User: Which sequence fits this backbone?
């Protein structure tokens, strides 16, 4: 891939994909230290690392590599957090995962989720934490919609790509934790996308 991008004078595409991977690995390392120390971070401290560990940045930057001239250095920089929409997109993915999967993840050795961090920091019960995280989900969707409707310096194909990743995350968690426990609906959707023929 690097050689192909170098031929097209776009070797910086691969550079940004590597940067996304490094960010992901660093966030995993921080979370592993938290887990090994039994440390529950403050909610904002958790979110600053958990947005990277969700995989959204890595997937987005990697998916932009082969998009050609529409993706500039600025678009990659925006994909690495400098865009309100990209940050909101990652927030939706992280929070929806934590809301749905936190019980499963706490039954195995896992870093505290946003649920546990928020409950501990604010001294609230699970239902109150759900309510607050759902409010933050609504705010993040508003930010996504705002950036999608109002022209910005982010190229529309990049916005659409980020939005599509967010849509996939919602589908994965809409009926439970289909990431960790794949159900009938997820199997059906995967079959529709990858196995079943499309009649034209």
Assistant:
């Amino acid at each position: 891939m690097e050689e192909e991008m170098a031929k097209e004078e776009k070797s910086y595409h691969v550079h940004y994909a590597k940067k996304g991977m490094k960010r992901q690995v660093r966030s995993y390392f921080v979370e592993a230290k938290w887990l090994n120390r039994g440390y529950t971070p403050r909610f904002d401290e958790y979110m600053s690392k958990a947005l990277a560990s969700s995989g959204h940045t890595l997937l987005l930057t990697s998916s932009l590599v082969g998009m050609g001239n529409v993706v500039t250095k600025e678009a990659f920089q925006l994909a690495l957090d400098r865009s309100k929409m990209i940050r909101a997109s990652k927030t939706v993915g992280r929070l929806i995962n934590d809301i749905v999967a936190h019980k499963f993840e706490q039954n195995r050795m896992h870093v505290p989720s946003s649920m546990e961090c928020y409950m501990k920091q604010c001294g609230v019960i699970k239902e109150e934490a759900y309510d607050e995280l759902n409010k933050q989900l609504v705010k993040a969707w508003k930010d996504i919609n705002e950036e999608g409707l109002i022209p910005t310096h982010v190229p529309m194909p990049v916005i659409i790509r980020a939005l599509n990743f967010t849509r996939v995350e919602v589908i994965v968690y809409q009926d439970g934790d289909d990431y960790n426990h794949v159900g009938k609906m997820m199997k059906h959707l995967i079959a529709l996308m990858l196995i079943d023929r499309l009649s034209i």
